[in-house]
Design a protein that fits this description.
Number of strands: 25
Number of helices: 2
Strand content: over 45%
Radius of gyration: 17 Å
CATH architecture: 6 Propeller
Distance between the termini: 32 Å
Helix content: under 10%
Number of domains: 1
Largest sheet: 5 strands, antiparallel
Shape: globular
Order of helices and strands: HEEEEEEEEEEEEEEEEEEEHEEEEEE
CATH topology: Neuraminidase
CATH class: Mainly Beta
């Protein structure tokens, strides 16, 4: 299989504000809640040209009902994978089709832009800690496969948490108490697996049992469960976009269960635990939905 990272690379200053009713058609790649649950961020791929694989990828912030959709990034770079603290958004950015990307922070409206990593590597998938003081991210800065690192919110005090040249460590997310990090591993065999570890990199624990293809894990509001997308549980070979469904598992690896029958490749639970935001739809167009925690009452918030 192509690495999930390579696929994501394909499906990845003046603000442009529009309502959810008039937003452009695009491929939404990820979602993240603000700590107060009032805002949702997402990566949006738009203006895709199939013959050249050309596209634009930007960060959008909207109210949790889909209103006030705001593009907060400019047009020169491709921007992707945002995370929200109480006042700032963090995301990765690089020139179109470039092998390098850096991590930036900004206000919710895109102002006060700051570059916080300065390497010539691919630094990506940043995530704020619950207190907003630290950022976890993945990077190939040491050569080879992506590993997970943490740093202060200003880019200082970078520390490497994983070190395995045979595996890519992807999309870290902090637990609500800041004590653990969930992520998934990619060996290139279409059997990506969800793991958790302590915030210092110790006690790495497999949660998905080496079965199927499991990606983009996130925490419940109380840190007791994980939500993630899973495909090919029957041994098939479906793409992660078209063949993934939502599942949950307890943080100790027990209680594995589907979340309704929601077809989605990316989901996050709201900070109060009452809602989930998830993405569904095939490339090059997808939509963001918000539903109750059990998957009922789904409402499409993007048009």
């Amino acid at each position: 299989m192509k690495s999930i990272l390579a696929i994501i690379g394909i499906v990845f200053t003046v603000s442009i504000v529009c309502t959810a009713q008039t937003s452009p058609k695009m491929f939404y790649q990820d979602v993240a809640w603000s700590p107060d649950g009032k805002y949702i961020s997402s990566t949006g791929l738009h203006d895709y040209v199939q013959g050249t694989d050309g596209f634009r990828t930007d960060i959008y912030v909207m109210r949790s009902d889909g209103s006030n959709l705001t593009k907060i990034t400019g047009d020169q770079m491709n921007d992707y994978y945002a995370s929200l603290s109480k006042k700032r958004v963090v995301y990765s950015s690089g020139l179109p089709k470039a092998k390098e990307s850096s991590i930036f922070t900004a206000n919710f409206d895109g102002s006060d832009l700051r570059r916080i990593t300065q390497t010539t590597a691919k630094d990506t998938a940043p995530a704020f800690s619950p207190d907003g003081k630290r950022i976890a991210f993945m990077s190939d800065r040491d050569g080879g496969k992506h590993q997970i690192y943490v740093m202060n919110a200003d880019g200082s005090d970078v520390r490497k948490l994983t070190d395995d040249a045979t595996v890519s460590f992807c999309n870290p997310q902090w637990s609500p108490d800041g004590g653990r990090i969930v992520y998934y591993t990619d060996k290139g065999d279409r059997k990506d697996q969800v793991w958790i570890m302590n915030a210092d990199g110790t006690n790495k624990t497999l949660l998905t049992g080496g079965i199927a293809h499991n990606i983009f894990p996130g925490w419940s509001h109380d840190g007791k469960k994980l939500i993630f997308s899973s495909s090919n549980r029957d041994g098939g070979n479906a793409s992660y976009v078209d063949g993934s469904y939502l599942y949950t598992v307890n943080a100790d690896g027990s209680g594995f269960a589907p979340l309704g029958k929601i077809k989605s490749f990316f989901a996050r639970i709201s900070p109060d635990g009452k809602k989930i935001a998830y993405i569904t739809g095939g490339f090059p167009e997808s939509s963001i939905y918000v539903a109750n925690e059990d998957g009922s009452g789904a409402v499409k918030i993007t048009k």
